[in-house]
Write a structure and sequence with these properties.
Number of strands of chain B: 19
Helix content of chain B: 10-25%
Mean pLDDT of chain B: 95
CATH topology of the largest domain in chain A: D-amino Acid Aminotransferase, Chain A, domain 1
Number of helices of chain A: 32
Order of helices and strands of chain B: EEEHEEEEHEHEHHEEHEHEHEHEEHEEEH
Largest sheet of chain B: 10 strands, mixed
CATH topology of the largest domain in chain B: Rossmann fold
Oligomer: heterodimer
Distance between the termini of chain B: 61 Å
Radius of gyration of chain A: 28 Å
Helix content of chain A: 25-40%
């Protein structure tokens, strides 16, 4: 059936602020869906409270509502627009829940709105454990067996029905107290008694244990005719017991035979058909008993999910885009494969490479958190590595993590103590996979490792092979390493840095040796079809497989090995922000995407490098060329050498991109916009302070030290409290306010443990000061302030965690004037070309400078949204030297920064994910802890929410 | 690590690592894009005489399991892959793929940039190739390569077909089917057995009369290797079967023979279809199926368009090639792909039910 012509306007519900478990993958999905619908001439109305999203751009949807995701907002929208259908499947669980709420309140019925992409029964069935279990039984699909017992005899009876191993879960006990695994009848009696006693209501869930089973996911799409395709199979490296969001995952499935895979595929189709015959996408999780191939259905998500974003990036098949088309009536056979443009969208992608996804954790931000991995997701982001083999993909994923590792081990950061390795293997926490390699390096037997981790032995054999390669290389030096071994190591994904570590030489020596031997990366295309058909989409990854030593780049291209062909257009490279983490999230992806689009408008060929599969910047439709590669020096440098761009934009990708500026500069690569010298000057507190002094701008007293002794010495000259932090970090990492010498020394030592050889900055902390920040664009001659935000909480809370108001709400014209004057002076003094963000503390009517960041800040997307102005686009054109500020139609009145947002103010409300970490101290301080933000427009300062936040502004403050 | 060479008829020379049996082998080089099912592919008799390039990166990960063979041995002439695993993991596996290849005397090569190779074949078409891990002189190998005949015009079925008739299934089953074995995959017979069909499998060159002596309720013409137009004996058999008006089902080569028996010509495709993800639309029911495919020849769209007797039932959604036909006024139908899958999706198993339907309604259902 072609598209349903009755549908003229569609409402898309977004997923709201970023929280753990629901990140920017839904911005990717939502913006894809919106574009996909608009291609069909459908008017798109979109609601999302998260301002740092591409989906809420006026270029993506026709009408955008930056409103709280609640019934009230939905009614308001439906009153204003005639909407025929709502698409709730691209905004995560948040959107589905809101859809259900509205359904229960009769809102859709009242306004005659059809739910598309899913049906309500499917959502309810998959949400309700009991309904789900009954349906699966009806479909003859296995689910985890289990029932609650309230007596010993009952428990025993259930155990006999299910068989061992079992897990006992006493009801209403904290963190599973009194429960556990039971492997035999002998253990059972005693443990059941204990479990019953532990439960205050004497109730125990006796459940089949599937911990240690293999875990798989399938991504399915179905159209109105019932045609179903499987886009991707994903295998979890970490078996059942660890949330899939916290598991290392691999695609395609590596250890499934055809017979078992087809059984799983059939079961997946049956389950999807079983939950309802809607047209859309669905994700199904399976557990597979590695001893008898029994398959259990774990859960079904009838919507686009984090895994479907991963599957889209892994295969090139744009799931959300196609799902949106199916939702409005198209059938799969009527659509084209978006990558080949010639073959059918009704097909199952075949891939000739491997992807590995690794979660990115941020436990350091949640002091006191339970860091063990289990049923609840705790990671804040993820990276994907693409390689020709599992090993290459795994190492590339490790290089993408930005956790100061250089790959899987071989970097001097290994665990070497047997007891801690064994403990890590058995009780998984963040980054366990590193310790598996360490275990092999130590000589712990594969059998023991398998027993402790339950990870499939094929995966383990791959890591064991890496350990052996490490050892083999250690026997050589850079002078005598056999060329074949060097090439072999590169094919196994080793970074030059790892090889240098193993050969005890400098990274540059390894690079040099590779140049001499002509061992260069080649670039392959992600094309959905394993090269069976010609693809038109410039989506690349690098590999060393296929490289023969001695072959030049031209020969590699000639021999069809290298597929990335260079044009002679003028090019610019944009560095992405890597994995989401606290302090660096979706905002920077927003900036990167707009940077790409602006550069395109100026006639540049745009080249994007990023490794975060959740992002819009890694959508193959955004940049002219996408390299899905680690934002890691070696990878970037090789792309630069290949593409020869005019320069690199580092201002938009957060700290990830910015910290590469030094090396780019050293290698003579042009940095677009503000120069490296200026970036460095702003970071170098000493030089920056003398600049401020020269400009006659006040700043808090400060000093820089490199050890604890000097810190204490320095503190004698300053007054406590003091603010202590390492230089060159984002999100206030390891930033702390200390009140005495003891605390000072302790914290300095802690910082040095994490950032050895780093400068430590010590500022006098301005107690009870008001905090404000200004973002501005400078073209080197003129400065335009795009917004001044005032924090509701006093100084001391990280700007990312503060509620902030645009424009400032309590600062006098005199203070605003000071802020504006300082901002302009600093921007010009730093010879900024592009964006700059300056943070201020205001005390006793004096405006002090806390810091200046000549780059896009977290608040820029917020300001763009609040004022509905394309500031990143403008800044990028200025960076590129294509335009000056005077070329734009901006409000150039002297007090433009006073301009209200519409009729009032916009509040940036931080959102936390503390519910994932029950034992964590919720106090706020200089280190950022929020995972996301929402925008909230108010008409006046009498608004209830504002008054509430204002009233509580001192409540959560810690040091 | 032992060195091996892969040389193509057009001179392209690739160096890799020897896996499987040490030796030399030749055959038509073609690629398969399946992500699973290497053992089923290697033991599929339709691949007889061919060297298979696996586009899936890792091969051998889950070892081999004897009951999952599609015939009594590996049928390919050689194998090419990117990463070959000697380590494997599967509880029921009975051996490693390396041992399996050695036992079956299959010469193979790994560490090849299969993607570059596939792009080359995509542009130039399937062609002959030689793999050797014993002769490491490129010029010598190139000379050997000249001796390999082209697949065009090659008759191979009689070489791999069963030598003597045999039975498959329960002899008390409701229906009897005479199977012409041109290189049949075992899973087809398993599908018959599952549907209460007793099969007698005949050698490729069996005369129609001998098959008719079995008094079957219907006929099945199997898949198999080679050029269908070089098999006049089989075309003659199919013509005679059509005259009986008994149910007839053909798969792959069987489909091409049904076409030839109805004056539809066949042609050699540049690259054929080999994989587990080929989109096919059933234009009778208007629904789609993901199919398992393995063929290098196709039937002429032009001839079908002109034909009065042959009706298209299935089309390939990628290139619009004909994937299924039925004969008007007869009880005969066929598909170009593999509804028995193995490897591949089970979406098309319904075709066996349709065949069963024809068997059950003797002389009633007539297409057209």
């Amino acid at each position: 059936m072609p598209r349903n012509k009755k549908i003229k306007t569609v409402l898309i519900i977004g997923s709201g602020p970023i929280v753990i478990g629901q990140a920017c993958e839904f911005d990717y999905a939502g913006s894809q869906a919106a574009r996909s619908l608009r291609e069909e001439g459908i008017e798109v109305v979109l609601i999302n409270s998260n301002p740092a999203t591409i989906m809420t751009d006026s270029t993506v949807a026709d009408h955008i509502y930056l409103k709280p995701l609640d019934k009230k907002s939905i009614i308001e929208i439906l009153e204003k627009h005639t909407i025929q259908a709502v698409l709730p499947t691209v905004g995560g669980q948040t959107a589905l829940n809101l859809m259900i709420d509205c359904k229960k309140a009769g809102i859709w019925e009242k306004y005659n709105v059809e739910i598309i992409g899913v049906d309500i029964d499917a959502v309810e069935t998959t949400e309700d454990r009991e309904k789900f279990r009954l349906l699966m039984q009806k479909l003859d699909a296995n689910v985890c067996k289990g029932r609650t017992a309230t007596s010993f005899l009952e428990g025993k009876k259930i155990a006999q029905e299910i068989g061992f191993p079992l897990v006992l879960r006493p009801s209403y006990t904290l963190a599973g107290t009194g429960g556990g695994f039971v492997h035999s009848l002998e253990q059972f009696n005693e443990m059941l008694t204990r479990a019953l006693q532990a439960s205050p209501i004497h109730e125990v869930l006796v459940e089949q244990s599937i911990v240690g089973w293999k875990e798989f996911e399938l991504e399915l799409l179905r159209d109105n005719l019932g045609n179903v395709i499987i886009i991707c199979s994903i295998e979890n490296f970490d078996p059942m017991g660890i949330h899939t969001g916290d598991s290392v995952t691999v695609a395609p499935a590596m250890t499934l035979s055809d017979k078992v895979y087809q059984k799983m595929r059939d079961l997946g189709i049956k389950c999807m058909n079983g939950i309802g015959m809607f047209a859309g996408g669905c994700n199904i999780q399976f557990a597979l008993n590695p001893e008898d191939d029994q398959i259990i259905v774990i859960e079904i998500n009838p919507r686009v999910s984090r895994s479907s974003a991963l599957a889209s990036k892994a295969t090139g098949y744009p799931i959300a885009k196609i799902a949106a088309k199916l939702a409005i009536g198209y059938n799969l056979d009527e659509l084209k494969n978006q990558i080949t443009k010639t073959t059918s969208a009704y097909f199952e992608p075949s891939i000739d490479y491997v992807i590995v996804k690794i979660p990115r954790w941020n436990f350091d931000k949640f002091k006191g958190a339970d860091t063990s991995l289990g049923l609840q997701m705790k990671s804040v982001g993820e990276v994907m590595g693409i390689g020709r083999t599992f090993q290459e993909a795994l190492q590339k994923a490790c290089q993408s993590l930005e956790n100061r590792r250089n790959g899987l081990g071989a970097d001097g950061k290994e665990l070497t103590e047997q007891a801690s390795i064994l403990k890590s293997l058995e009780f998984p926490s963040a980054d366990r996979f590193f310790h598996i390699k360490d275990a092999f390096m130590m000589g712990i037997s594969p059998k023991t490792i398998q027993k402790l981790t339950k990870i499939d032995k094929w995966f383990l054999s791959q890591i064991q092979d890496l350990a052996e390669t490490d050892k083999e290389m250690q026997q050589y030096s850079i002078e005598n390493i056999p060329h074949e071994l060097l090439l072999n190591a590169k094919q196994k994904g080793y970074a030059d840095r790892q090889i240098a570590h193993l050969l005890r030489c400098l990274e540059s020596k390894v690079f040099q040796k590779r140049q001499e031997l002509n061992i260069h990366r080649i670039y392959k295309m992600v094309d959905t079809c394993a090269a069976e058909f010609e693809a038109k989409t410039p989506y690349y990854y690098s590999t060393f497989h296929g490289v023969s030593a001695g072959e030049t780049r031209a020969e590699q291209t000639q021999n069809l090995k290298n597929e990335s062909i260079q044009s002679d257009k003028k090019k610019v490279l944009i560095l992405g922000a890597g994995p989401n983490r606290i302090g660096q999230g979706i905002e920077f992806d927003y900036c990167c995407v707009h940077g790409v689009l602006a550069a395109k408008e100026c006639g540049y060929e745009t080249i994007m490098i990023n490794c975060n599969p959740e992002t819009v910047s890694t959508d193959f439709d955004i940049a002219d060329k996408l390299y899905f590669e680690p934002v890691f020096w070696e990878h970037i440098y090789e792309i630069i050498k290949l593409e020869k761009p005019e320069g690199v934009i580092v201002q938009l990708g957060g700290q990830t991109a910015l910290k590469l500026a030094e090396k780019l500069n050293r290698y003579g690569i042009k940095i677009i916009g503000t120069t490296y010298e200026a970036l460095d000057l702003a970071e170098d507190r000493e030089r920056f302070s003398s600049l401020l002094r020269d400009l006659n701008i006040p700043y808090p007293e400060f000093g820089a030290v490199r050890n604890a002794e000097d810190a204490v010495e320095l503190s004698k000259k300053m007054d406590f409290p003091l603010l202590v932090r390492p230089s060159y970090v984002l999100g206030g990492q390891k930033m702390k306010i200390v009140i005495d010498e003891e605390e000072l020394e302790q914290h300095v030592v802690e910082v040095l443990a994490d950032f050895p050889d780093n400068n430590i900055l010590i500022d006098r902390f301005l107690d009870k000061a008001i905090e404000a920040e200004a973002d501005a664009i400078c073209d080197g001659e003129n400065v335009y302030i795009i917004g001044i935000m005032e924090h509701i909480e006093p100084a001391g809370i990280h700007s990312g965690d503060s509620n902030a108001v645009l424009p400032a709400f309590s600062l006098s014209p005199l203070l605003m004037e000071q802020i504006a004057v300082h901002t302009k002076k600093i921007a010009l003094a730093l010879q900024t070309v592009g964006l700059i963000n300056i943070q201020f503390a205001i005390k006793d009517n004096i405006v002090y400078i806390i810091e200046a960041n000549p780059r896009a800040s977290r608040t820029v997307p917020f300001i763009c949204k609040a004022y509905q102005k394309p500031y990143i686009n403008i800044a990028t054109k200025i960076m590129l030297g294509e335009k000056k500020l005077k070329d734009f139609d901006l409000d150039k009145s002297a007090t433009s920064y006073f301009v209200p947002v519409g009729r009032g103010y916009a509040i940036k409300v931080p959102v936390f994910s503390f519910n994932k970490f029950p034992n964590v101290n919720k106090e706020l301080g200089p280190e950022m802890k929020s995972t996301g933000e929402a925008i909230y427009f108010i008409e006046s300062l009498q608004d209830d929410l504002f008054l509430k936040i204002y009233g509580e502004r001192n409540l959560y403050l810690s040091r | 690590m032992n060195k091996a060479f892969l040389i193509l008829a057009d001179g392209m020379t690739l160096e890799g690592q020897s896996v499987g049996k040490k030796g030399t082998t030749t055959g038509e080089l073609c690629f398969n894009t399946g992500l699973t099912g290497y053992q089923e592919i290697y033991s599929d008799p339709s691949y007889f005489g061919q060297i298979i390039v696996n586009t899936n990166t890792h091969i051998g990960n889950y070892g081999v399991f004897e009951p999952e063979n599609e015939s009594n041995k590996a049928q390919i002439n050689g194998m090419v892959c990117t990463a070959f695993s000697t380590n494997y993991s599967r509880w029921k596996a009975d051996d490693s793929l390396q041992n399996y290849l050695e036992k079956n005397e299959i010469v193979a090569i790994a560490n090849i940039d299969t993607r570059a190779l596939v792009k080359h074949l995509r542009q130039k078409g399937a062609m002959n190739a030689i793999i050797s891990s014993e002769i490491l002189e490129v010029e010598v190998l190139k000379k050997r390569l000249l001796d390999i005949p082209s697949m065009l015009g090659m008759e191979l079925s009689s070489k791999i077909s069963t030598k003597n008739p045999y039975f498959y299934g329960n002899e008390n089953a409701t229906y009897k089917v005479a199977v012409l074995d041109l290189g049949i995959k075992t899973n087809i017979l398993r599908n018959f057995e599952k549907r209460n069909i007793f099969a007698k499998v005949f050698p490729a060159k069996t005369a129609f009369e001998e098959m008719e002596n079995f008094q079957p309720d219907g006929y099945f013409i199997s898949n198999g290797p080679g050029d269908p137009s070089s098999m006049p004996y089989a075309i003659a058999t199919v013509k005679k079967i059509l005259n009986t008006n008994k149910a007839l089902f053909g798969i792959c080569l069987g489909h091409q023979l049904l076409a030839l028996a109805n004056d539809i010509s066949t042609y050699k495709m540049p690259n054929g279809h080999r994989g587990l993800n080929h989109p096919v639309k059933n234009i009778i029911t208007n629904t789609c199926e993901i199919t398992s495919q393995n063929h290098g020849f196709g039937i002429s769209e032009f001839d079908v368009a002109k034909s009065n007797g042959v009706e298209i039932t299935h089309l390939n959604l990628n290139d619009n090639s004909i994937e299924g036909i039925r004969i008007k006024g007869k009880r005969a139908f066929s598909v170009q792909y593999h509804p028995e899958s193995s490897p591949g999706p089970n979406d098309s198993e319904y075709l066996f039910d349709e065949f069963l339907g024809l068997l059950a309604n003797k002389n009633k259902v007539v297409f057209g």
